[in-house]
Amino acid sequence: MKQHFTDERTGISYTLQGDYYLPDLALPAEEQVEVGLWGQRHLQYIKERRKGFYTTLLTKCELNRHLTDVNKQAEDMFFRLVKQMAEREGVTEQLKADNQMEWVARMNNIRSRATEIVNHDIIYD
C-alpha cells in the first residue's frame, strides 16, 4: 500500500494511518497576535459557555482577531472608567502626594469597580 496519494478529482492528498487513508487537511495560517488579559478571560468564557461561537471563530480562522478586538475594547473601557471615576471622586495626584495609603485604597476600589463593569459589559456578554 502507498503511504501517500492524491485524489485527482478533488485534489486532496491522503496519508495512510494504520489501515485507513486520512485526508491531509490543515487550517490556513492565522496571524498570531499576543492576546492580553481581557482577551484571555473572554476566550475562557466562550470556550466554556458559548462552544458553538468558539468553534465557528476557530474554523473561520477569526478567533485571534476577535480576541484582539475584545481585548482592545475592554482595555479602552477600563482606562476610561478609571479616569472618569477618579476625577469624579477627587482622587488626584495631590491626594497621592499627601496621603499615599488613602490614594492606594481609593484607586484599588475604583479599579475593582471598573473591572466588574468591563467584565459584565464586554467579557461575559
List the helices and strands and how they pair.
Blueprint: E1 4-6, E2 13-17, E3 20-23, H1 37-49, H2 51-59, H3 63-89, H4 93-98, H5 100-123
Antiparallel strand pairs: 1-2, 2-3
Number of helices: 5
Q: How many beta-strand elements?
A: 3
Largest sheet, strands/sense/barrel: 3 strands, antiparallel
Rg, Å, rounded: 24 Å
**Shape estimate:** rod-shaped
Structural class: mainly alpha
The overall pLDDT, averaged over residues, is 92
- The topology string of helices and strands comes to EEEHHHHH
Quote the distance from N terminus to C terminus.
Answer: 53 Å
User: Strand sequence of the main sheet, in spatial order?
Assistant: 1-2-3
Number of domains: 2
Helical fraction equals 55-70%
**Poorly predicted regions:** none
Classify the beta-strand content into a percent band: 5-15%
